[in-house]
Amino acid sequence: MEKKIAILNGDGIGPEVTAQSIKILNAVAQQYGHVFHYKEALIGADAIDKTGTALPSETIDICLDSDAVLFGAVGDPKYDNDPSAKVRPEQGILGIRKALQLFANIRPVTTYSTLQHLSPLKPALLEGVDCVIFRELTGGIYFGKKYTSEDGNTASDECYYTRPEIERIAHLAFKYAQNRRKKKVTLVDKANVLETSRLWRKVVQEIATQYSDVTVDYMFVDNAAMQLMINPKQFDVILTENMFGDIISDEASVLAGSLGMLPSASVGNGTAFFEPIHGSYPQAAGKDIANPIGSILSAAMMLDHFGLTAEAEVIRDAVDWTLENNFVTKDIDPMNFYFMSTIGDLISDYVSGKIPGSVKKENIELRKSTII
Ligand SMILES: NC(=O)C1=CN([C@@H]2O[C@H](COP(=O)(O)OP(=O)(O)OC[C@H]3O[C@@H](n4cnc5c(N)ncnc54)[C@H](O)[C@@H]3O)[C@@H](O)[C@H]2O)C=CC1
Ligand SMILES: CC(C)CC(=O)C(=O)O
Ligand SMILES: [Mg+2]
């Protein structure tokens, strides 16, 4: 198979985690006889520094001309710490989501039994957790009208949703749930307070009647945040609006072991987009210590999207193998950790069929937390 993949590295750890994914995609290409053509494009603070805008039109063109996009992360403290900055890196990711009409962000949450002893959560609580968050991605408060008064003392962000925006992602979530064991959709909203949430509830209640084999329940977001920590097993498909989905998915990443672990696929009407759920983690940039698995599993989701399900499965097996053998990054085990590039090499070797077998753990450099 021959595919064109746009690479949007972005800022901070973005280029580093994406480099690991490309290494693994190259191993897949070689092992299975595929050809992946990569084309890099600018986004975020990197793009601002080079072109003055967070999303150059050339980047949109490259994405539109590709079969899929692999995105790293955007964001830089120099903008985060300057509330009056007019051009911001995050405009890059918001803009490309809108330009590609990526209205659904699908974030699977997987737990790993081999990591349970390192989790702050009780092992019994993590057993059997398997949920997927369907986060609306091109509407809501992130895209609503923004206002700051001239004296700078009053500001507002509008949260705005239309029925079609809710319907299209709700259908996706219900169809997805139909193919799962639990067949359950939980709408997470704040319908006791917000008009937009009441619209979500009304529309989802109507759509639910078309999917009689799917159980539906409704939960307020504040309670959902708590339930995710005390009883995550109850969830199957979580359907929610943009900001709630952003927040509860970072929280849900604790179930997987780290924010660095969760992948995602953003889909809509055009080119699909694959992105780890984390941000640019600037404190780790250039140190080779961030967790690349969120990006690597996003690349696996891209292969699923291409119909290369066996290849995607091998990547997931490789990830499982590294975790089972305690090849983990600092976020997972601060006392005994490996560099990000080592994890990337191991996963790539596994995909290439070189391990398990030839790798001797004692030959792989273990980094102790005191080194960094
Ligand atoms: N999709 C995107 O491009 C996103 C961009 N951002 C931007 O990223 C910048 C930093 O934002 P933060 O709130 O600090 O969020 P962040 O996701 O970059 O990091 C938060 C914390 O999560 C952990 N973490 C995140 N990714 C990790 C990884 N791969 N491996 C190990 N640990 C990891 C670290 O402890 C880190 O301090 C900001 O400029 C923000 O706007 C934030 C979220 C998403
Ligand atoms: C950087 C934001 C625009 C979004 C975000 O945090 C996310 O998509 O996870
Ligand atoms: Mg986020």
Any overview of this molecule?
With 372 residues, this protein is α/β, with parallel strands linked by helices. It folds into 2 domains: 1-107 and 257-372, Isopropylmalate Dehydrogenase; 120-255, Isopropylmalate Dehydrogenase (3-Layer(aba) Sandwich). Helices cover 40% and strands 17% of the residues. It contains 13 helices and 12 strands. The protein has helices at 14-32, 44-51, 57-64, 77-80, 90-99, 123-126, 163-178, 195-208, 221-230, 242-256, 293-305, 309-324, 340-351; strands spanning 2-10, 35-40, 68-73, 104-110, 130-136, 146-148, 155-157, 184-189, 215-220, 237-240, 265-267, 272-274. The strands form 2 sheets. Strands 2-1-3-12-11-4-5-10-8-9 form a 10-stranded mixed sheet, with helices on both faces. β1, α1 and β2 (35-40) form a beta-alpha-beta unit. The longest helix is centred in the first third of the chain and has 19 residues, at 14-32. The radius of gyration is 21 Å and the shape is globular. Residues 368-372 have low confidence and may be disordered. The structure holds 1,4-dihydronicotinamide adenine dinucleotide (NAI), 2-OXO-4-methylpentanoic acid (COI) and magnesium ion.
